[in-house]
Design a protein that fits this description.
mainly alpha; 6-stranded mixed beta sheet; 3-stranded antiparallel beta sheet
């Protein structure tokens, strides 16, 4: 039934359950649609299924009750909520009940303002409604008034009715702004107004009721009753309870969606609720199916969306990128890349328009169907998702790290910083857990692991062992799935935390001891000295896990954690992290070693520290650490003196002497010669003390030889000569002639540099003879070449020619160009000094020919340049 309003609008029947009792006809001026109808009492109104709103109806009736008159204001009940949540139904039911109770003898009318029409001209404005309202309240009242005077007449009528004690109820439905209704509000508080809107409108004197979705129980009742009404005796109402519950959940308990699926079921008698639920669950978009031809959830949402401003609409579309169930101001700001204050304003506007729901202080959520709708829009608008997602993940990572820092600062439990960090964690935990999944899905494993680390730390702080074990296991699984060297420390840390937590719950140390042993091996394989991939954060994570695991172990088993503590320190050192990060795990390892009297663990701890100081070029500290390691080393050596297992002794000796040697080698960068020689002497003394403490001649002589060469290379020739001499004597006692000869060659070279040519010649001759006896022509050639140079230095040219000739012959026998070239060069020099220039030239040409045959350009050009400088080629 269609009629035209006196102000130019139309009054139409909007749906099958709307009955218009009075209409008034005037010529149309615009296309705006105005629906005005008298409210019928409950006993006469068309029945509709309405459940689950008892408290809300009572709230509205409490405002409408004329016995509860407010003072100095018009009493208005503003019902706000999401599109399709049932605002109109609540207003109708409440108004019908108020009329049935006889509260409004002056009349009660319902007006659809059409406030969310896509075209602004289709939205009803006050000047278009005065005529229909006058006619609805007093039949024929509008006929006697010109349109321009209808507003004045409308308010005069309301004032007159108020004076007569005849209250009027206005139900202004579907308002989108205060401008649509403010001029319609009565001036007397005897009258009442109920307003519905998708926005939370600010109206003087109003009491706002935000309508939420139904409970699961009430949703099920609504579907049952509606289906019984549409399809009497339908067995599906009781035969498929599980399917009906799934349908309600997939509709997000939204009344409009529930009415639509019920209509779909009624129209398809053979369709089981479970089948329709499956279709909804599997649909590309649930919104595609939530349309029964007359009603559409998407269409309802469209009307709200098109009212949003540009930035509001963009934020609305991006909100589904937040992985968790709710979001706050900070996360919204990160999605948009805006400042916090701008995001706050946008969120409040979205909440006012009920496109999002307020769930707690500073926290909102999107209804499931609204979220689906936003995802559709995001795809349609081709919004960039990568950068907002990255900003949001970074936000969760940084906030998680800040919370961990607050808990790690040594503050008392009641410190505001600690309380704030824990409160933030409690609020954001669902989002953090969802962000972990988001990080794994989009290949941002590092962010996922950092967030999980924060979860673990908070669980540890609160002593929540079961939750700690769960979070740590998740952390280990995520790290292991990454399968790269960067994630290895996280995997180890996660397993250590997990087992440490389980140990505290159930006892027993065997699993964690086994884990720690495997952790050491894995860490060694993944992070070696040549390829350190650990960051400060990763090392910190492993350190905390190792400390946690050690704390969970029984006292007798704590040594099992020492190797992992060593690896944590070593990794931090190689990665170039702060000294503190290296020293703190070593302190804990040293505490366990000393408390349990384990000298070997104490020695190894000091050696890890010494190597660290050596890497830092802090030679005195490195030597101090070696000094500290020596005493427990010697105690350990005494304990195994009767042990025939040589590998056990070597295991003790090698790390110490290797560390001493590396420290001495690092000292070579010291430019101050006296200090350098002091460091070398100290390192040598410590290495020899350790070797002699093991009562092993082989270890002693090896230390003598290695450190003699180190002194030699540093230019500390006198100390080098002394060590070489000791090494020669030790090798002779061990009857190792080749080692004697090799050491004699080095000793001879050192003496030559010192200018003691005569003794150098004697030692070189001994070396040549020993190499010949041992049948080593290459070594014989090298020693003979050195001897020839030393004889030339003494001026004994004939002997030099003989030595050089012998050296060349030995090299030729081996076809070793590296030996033959220097032997031919020294022979050419000796022959020239003997006056045999022809033979000297031929020897020089042989040297060049052999150098060229080796294919080594460096050897060829070095040889040619040398011979040219001597005038031999």
């Amino acid at each position: 039934m269609t009629a035209h309003a006196s102000s130019g609008g139309s009054v139409v029947q909007a749906a099958r359950d709307v009955r218009i009792t009075e209409v008034h006809h005037h010529a149309p001026v615009t296309d705006a649609v105005v629906l005005v109808e008298r409210v019928q009492p409950t006993t006469e109104a068309v029945g509709e299924v309405f459940v689950g709103r008892d408290a809300e109806v009572e709230s509205v009736l409490g405002v409408l009750d004329p016995r509860h008159e407010a003072t100095a204001m018009v009493v208005v009940s503003a019902v706000a909520g999401l599109a399709g949540v049932g605002k109109t139904a609540l207003a109708r039911v409440s108004a019908a009940e108020a009329v049935a109770r006889g509260w409004f003898p002056g009349g009660a009318v319902f007006v659809d303002l059409n406030g969310y029409a896509l075209q602004p001209e289709q939205q009803a404005q006050p000047h278009q409604m005065y005529g229909p309202l006058l006619h609805a309240l007093v039949e024929g009242a509008a006929d006697r008034v010109a349109p321009r005077h209808q507003a004045v007449q409308y308010h005069r009528l309301l004032d007159s009715l108020a004076a007569e004690g005849r209250g009027v109820l206005l139900v202004l439905d579907n308002a989108s702004s205060s401008a649509q209704i403010v001029d319609l509000l009565p001036r007397s508080r005897r009258h009442r107004v109920v307003i519905t809107s998708r926005h939370t409108l600010t109206i003087k004197g109003s009491r706002t009721l935000d309508l939420r979705t139904l409970s699961r129980h009430d949703s099920l009742i609504l579907v049952r009753r509606q289906l019984e009404q549409l399809s009497a005796w339908d067995d599906r109402v009781h035969g498929d309870q599980t399917g009906l519950r799934r349908l309600c959940d997939l509709c997000g308990q939204l009344p409009l969606a529930l009415h639509i699926v019920t209509a779909l079921l009624a129209g398809a008698p053979g369709l089981a609720p479970a089948e329709l639920a499956d279709e909804l669950a599997q649909a590309h978009s649930r919104l595609d199916l939530l349309d029964d031809g007359e009603r559409s959830v998407r269409a309802a949402f469209d009307l709200s969306y098109h009212r949003l401003a540009h930035d509001q609409a963009r934020l609305f579309r991006l909100l589904p990128l937040n992985p968790g169930p709710h979001f706050g101001i900070d996360s919204a700001a990160k999605l948009l890349g805006f400042q916090t204050h701008r995001a706050r304003l946008l969120l409040h506007e979205l909440a006012r328009s009920h496109m999002i729901e307020h769930v707690a202080a500073g926290t909102w959520r999107q209804h499931d169907l609204i979220r689906d709708y936003a995802i559709e829009l995001m795809a349609n608008h081709q919004d960039d998702q990568r950068e907002p997602s990255e900003r949001l993940m970074q936000h969760y990572v940084l906030k998680s790290m800040s919370a961990v820092q607050a808990l790690s600062g040594g503050h008392p439990p009641d410190d505001p910083r600690v309380q704030h960090a824990l409160a933030w964690f409690d609020q954001e935990l669902p989002n953090l857990q969802a962000a972990v999944g988001m990080g794994v899905t989009f290949d941002d494993v590092d962010a996922a692991l950092r967030i999980l680390h924060a979860v673990v730390r908070v669980r540890r702080h609160r002593g929540q062992s079961a939750e700690l074990a769960e979070a740590a296991a998740r952390m280990a699984d995520v790290a292991s799935s990454a399968g790269d060297v960067h994630s290895a420390p996280w995997a180890l840390a996660g397993r250590a935390w997990e087992l440490g937590a389980r140990l505290s719950m159930y006892g027993g140390s065997a699993p964690i001891v086994e884990l720690l042993e495997l952790s050491v091996e894995s860490l060694r394989r993944s992070l070696d000295d040549d390829d350190a991939a650990a960051s400060e954060w990763q090392v910190t994570v492993v350190w905390e896990a190792a400390r946690s695991a050690a704390a969970a172990l029984p006292e007798a088993d704590k040594l099992a954690a020492v190797p992992l503590l060593h690896e944590v320190a070593r990794t931090a050192s190689v990665a170039g992290l702060d000294d503190f990060m290296v020293i703190r795990p070593l302190r804990l390892a040293l505490t366990h070693a000393r408390r349990l009297g384990d000298d070997l663990s104490e020695v190894l701890t000091h050696l890890v520290k010494a190597r660290h100081w050596g890497r830092r070029q802090r030679i005195p500290e490195a030597l101090d650490s070696l000094e500290a390691a020596l005493k427990p080393l010697l105690r350990t050596a005494d304990a195994v003196a009767a042990d025939a297992d040589a590998s056990r002794q070597e295991y003790l000796w090698r790390p110490f002497t290797a560390t001493a040697y590396d420290t001495a080698y690092a000292a070579l960068k010291v430019r101050d010669r006296p200090r350098l020689y002091e460091y070398l002497e100290r390192a040598t003394r410590l290495a020899l003390a350790a070797s002699r403490g093991l009562d092993s001649a082989e270890h002693v002589v090896a230390a003598l030889s290695h450190f003699a060469e180190l002194h030699h290379n540093a230019g500390n020739l006198r100390d080098a000569v002394g060590l070489y001499e000791e090494a020669v004597g030790a090798y002779e006692e061990l009857e190792q002639p080749k080692d004697v000869a090799r050491t004699l060659v080095n000793l001879s070279a050192a003496r030559t540099t010192l200018g003691d040519h005569a003794t150098a010649v004697e030692e070189a001759q001994r070396a040549v003879a020993l190499f010949q006896t041992e049948g080593d022509p290459s070594a014989t050639s090298q020693a003979g070449t050195l001897l020839a140079y030393e004889l030339l230095a003494l001026g004994e040219v004939p002997r030099a020619v003989a030595a050089a000739t012998q050296a060349e012959h030995a090299a030729v026998a081996t076809e070793d160009g590296d030996c033959q070239v220097p032997a031919a060069v020294v022979l050419a020099l000796a022959l020239r000094q003997s006056g045999q220039r022809g033979r000297a030239g031929r020897a020089a040409r042989r040297a060049l020919q052999v150098a060229e045959r080796t294919g080594r350009a460096d050897l060829y050009f070095d040889t040619r340049n040398r011979l040219q400088s001597e005038g031999l080629v």
